[in-house]
Specification:
By secondary structure, the protein is mainly alpha-helical. It has one domain. It has 6 helices and no strands. It is elongated. The model has no long low-confidence stretch (mean pLDDT 81).
């Protein structure tokens, strides 16, 4: 039986926003866990993850309140914001899946050169020094520096995982982008349904 009633639309919209709330809290928790265990020291990376988590939490909160109260204005803004997020996320996800190996290398090199803290984390965790070349006078936190064995370059090591990570990120992004367009459709339909418990003449 197709879900087309007022209560069913409301419950589906609430469930979708609860899912977004859990994902947002998970993102914030991962960032805090990374800092707590010393896996991530880059404030820029942590700040971006936390900002995305808070933004998603606020969107979910607006959608949840709008769904529970059947608030026309909140539902309208929620629908518009969700549509914009869908467009951006769908584009980024497709770009992640479409990058070839050369483009991945260029993207990684740009990120390597622009984030000193993340670069130090990578060198320490992957036990490598330098991206495509390493100057002995440069600072490297990898444990291999203290040993007699030469350190490996980071580019080949990162390159092994870059394709898998981008495909994973692109796939997750596509999945959530389709849940967002589902949320837009549910919100549009829910806004135009009358609450059977309310006064029909009060519906705008």
């Amino acid at each position: 039986m197709v879900c087309g009633g007022f209560a069913c639309s409301k419950n589906c919209l609430c469930a979708l926003n609860l899912l977004y709330t859990l994902v947002s809290l998970l993102l914030i928790g991962i960032a805090a866990w990374g800092i707590g265990f010393g896996l991530i020291s880059s404030l820029r990376v942590v700040g971006v993850v936390i900002a995305v988590g808070i933004f998603l939490f606020l969107i979910a909160l607006v959608g949840l309140i709008g769904a529970v109260k059947h608030h026309q204005v909140l539902l309208f803004f929620y629908m518009i914001i969700l549509l914009l997020v869908f467009i951006v996320q769908f584009s980024v996800s497709c770009a992640c899946l479409a990058l070839n190996q050369e483009q991945q290398g260029q993207l990684l090199e740009v990120g390597w050169n622009n984030t000193a803290s993340a670069r130090n984390d990578i060198q320490r965790n992957l036990n490598c020094c330098g991206f495509r070349s390493f100057n002995p006078n440069d600072t490297c936190l990898a444990s291999c520096v203290k040993s007699s064995h030469p350190c490996s370059l980071c580019a080949p090591i990162i390159g092994k995982y870059a394709g898998e990570v981008l495909r994973f990120v692109g796939g997750i992004g596509l999945f959530f982008s389709f849940t967002e367009i589902l949320g837009v459709w549910l919100t549009y339909r829910y806004r135009n349904q009358k609450d059977p418990r309310a006064n029909p003449s009060a519906f705008l």
